[in-house]
C-alpha cells in the first residue's frame, strides 16, 4: 500500500467486491491459494473451463477463432503462443502481449503442398490486415522434422518442443474446443517442460534461453526431464 512499483498500476486500494471491467473478464487469482477463480464466486474452475472462459471473454480472439473456423479446414486449431502466451500473461497479471506469429495448424493428407498453406495465409492476411498469420498442414510437417508421418493434428502437436506450447483452441459447434495431447497442467502450473517425443534436449534449452521466457514471465519454472 506504499509507493507504486514501476508496473501497469494506477492505484492500490482495498475493496469489498471486485471491480467491473477487469482485464480478463471475471477471472482472477487468489493470493492466499494457487487457485484461479471467477468473479461469480470463490469456486475454483478446472483448467479446461478456465481456458474456454478466457477466450470467450476476449472479443478479438473469439473473432479470430470464428474466422479460422470459416475456412473449413480439417482438425484445425490456433495453437502455440496464441494460447500459451495469453494464459501466461493472464496468470502474471499482464496485459495481452503482441505475438510474433498466429499459428494455424490443421491436418489434410489429400493436399500437403506448401503452396496451399500460403494461399490460406494470404486469405487471412487480406481479411484481417494482420501479416502474422502462419498456416501449416501437419500432414506434411513430419518431413521437415524427420519423423514418421503424423496421424492427426493432436499427434503432430505431441512432437512439438514444449508441453505448454502443444495446446490449440478452435471455435466449433458454437463453443471453444481444445487440442492438448499432454493436457493443460503444465500450461496453468507455468512449467516449461520438454515434450517426451521431442528428443533434442539441447535445442529445447537453447530455445527457452533465446526466447527469454523465464525473464519475461518470472513465475515460470523450468522442468528438466
From TrEMBL:
Mention any Pfam family matching this sequence.
Answer: NTP_transf_6
Q: Which InterPro entries match?
A: NTP_transf_6
Q: State what protein this is by name.
A: Nucleotidyltransferase family protein
Say which species the protein is native to.
Paenibacillus profundus
